Amino acid sequence: MDGMPLSMGSLRTLPWYVAGSQVLGVACVVITGVWMGHYRGGYAWDGSAQFNVHPLCMVLGLVFLYGDAVLVYRVFRNETKRSVKILHALLHMIALVISIVGLVAVFDFHSSAKISHMYSLHSWCGMLTFVLFILQWLLGLGFFLFPWASAQLRSWYLPLHVFFGLLLLVMSVGSCLLGITEKLLFSIKETYPRFTSEGVLANTLGLLLVCFGVVVGYVVTREDFRRPPNPEEEALSVHFKTLSEGEIPSSP
Amino acid sequence: MDGMPLSMGSLRTLPWYVAGSQVLGVACVVITGVWMGHYRGGYAWDGSAQFNVHPLCMVLGLVFLYGDAVLVYRVFRNETKRSVKILHALLHMIALVISIVGLVAVFDFHSSAKISHMYSLHSWCGMLTFVLFILQWLLGLGFFLFPWASAQLRSWYLPLHVFFGLLLLVMSVGSCLLGITEKLLFSIKETYPRFTSEGVLANTLGLLLVCFGVVVGYVVTREDFRRPPNPEEEALSVHFKTLSEGEIPSSP
């Protein structure tokens, strides 16, 4: 607005958005930890406390680490594309392992407590998110980290990978919010309408999860925050363009 | 993939995606209608049946009509930009009016039944979505339909309007899913784990709402589905570019 080139001026705000996302992400993990640790009886690998491992693992794995894995392309702007890809895949792998622990915890707890599995909308959405996440991770590995796919196939798949990547972050956050609602109505249905501290804390957690998703989504979709293509990527991008005669983004 | 220019070949699939979104949207409205009409005692403007107006209005207004208002820029590709803008604003206005009826219904019902207002995560998310929707609609009207804003201010606001527009669709769908979970746990908590027909129907509604949001989101973010700029818009876009020296999308 002050005559400075838009892309140069706005890039200065990127660190603030990234820092904001990290503050929000850490706050979500800490509040989930406090909710389950302080209000819901702490953590264990048996009995009712086993359930409490589930929310903590899902928020840490499928939201916070997943979001950070998405952000690496905006944060590491000058490192080689290959290094950033490996970091992206690694963070997603850690997120996957942590979310598997979270899923085992809740299935184990349901089995011990003789509660039906997979009947609620939360479980349907959560499981769909998890299955699509595994599929997306495997496809990403196959298309972008190993040299199996042709350049044209990669350029066709890239926008789909980016779209489904963001969709899965949205679905993860949404599944967490459904889980929060379920947990509150199972635990404090009678006192929830009186704005008890646990209810307000859990609602606040829900809003902070939304804010984390919004900031990450904004950073990765904002045009002038895109990673600048390096010369070799540029050459590859031109090659793609010639092959397909269409518009191909050069980086996710 | 068969040597045909990407943008020409892929544009042929656009009507299928739009048709798919309409089938999904109508299915969501019909299933909500059946759920409230058949399983929850039908509709009225007093007593417990007044609540049932709420889900139907919110799904019809804040999801289906809102989504269609977003889609008009992809569906009406050759009409003047101004006509499409007016249709976009009008559909959003109808969506807004219907959602106000839905909100009055639930607040009235809560007051009559002496239930606290605004204590649940569903109500927090839903109200936030509604307030941001009004704000977005007013800003859109002020920036794009009336000639108050300068060209540079419009070009600065356009990507924000697009981002928040899609975010609000996501938040609407998310709020509906939270509402479905709440309603099921208030109404059929005991039988829900036994996969009763009402529970399965409502869960299916949740997944269809997600599918509607995904298809609309995919259509409006896919690069080669963008509305082609007409000569006068092109000139305006170049004007924007000169002013800001940055990249400015020429249409939402």
UniProtKB/TrEMBL annotation, chains A, B:
Cofactor requirements of the protein: heme b
Cited SMART domains: B561 (SM00665)
Membrane topology: Multi-pass membrane protein
Membrane-traversing stretches: 14-36, 56-76, 88-107, 127-146, 158-180, 200-220
One Pfam family this sequence matches: Cytochrom_B561
Protein name: Transmembrane ascorbate-dependent reductase CYB561
Database matches in PROSITE patterns: CYTOCHROME_B561
Reaction(s) catalysed (UniProt annotation): Fe(3+)(out) + L-ascorbate(in) = monodehydro-L-ascorbate radical(in) + Fe(2+)(out) + H(+); monodehydro-L-ascorbate radical(out) + L-ascorbate(in) = monodehydro-L-ascorbate radical(in) + L-ascorbate(out)
